[in-house]
Amino acid sequence: xxxxxxxxxxxxxxxxxxxxxETNWDWSLFNCIVFKVRGxxxxxxxVLGCNFYYDVNWLNRWTFPLYTRGGPxxxxxxxxxxxxxxxxxxxxxxxxxxxCLSLVNSLGITVMDSAEGPFSLEIExxxxxxxxxxxxxxxxxxxxxxxxxxxx
Length: 152
Known about the structure:
mainly beta; six-stranded antiparallel beta sheet; 40% strand; globular; disordered N terminus; unfolded protein binding
């Protein structure tokens, strides 16, 4: 019998201009996102969505886990954008690329685990920062392929 997974997604509303036109945030000056949260001990996924022109890239998402300790205390988690990994339709891609931070249009928080019952995640603040000590461009293997062009 397969295990059942609980899935929940909190997605930030898309940023819009006048006449309901979608726009995006320019996060290209930053290299980290900082969360001040109080959780229940479950792992959560932080999901970044970008506004690409071509429809084959519309469901590209960059994901990184946010681990909570549980308990009554707040925790501060700094997640470098270089650690986010590329997925499409929820499947991790074998060709990884850095997130296009000038095209970010959505931020989501996902909980996926097999624990039954309610979950609790309190968010006090979400901030962007530039860490001068962070020098890596991307934490995962970036293969050079002369026949492949990236999105950015």
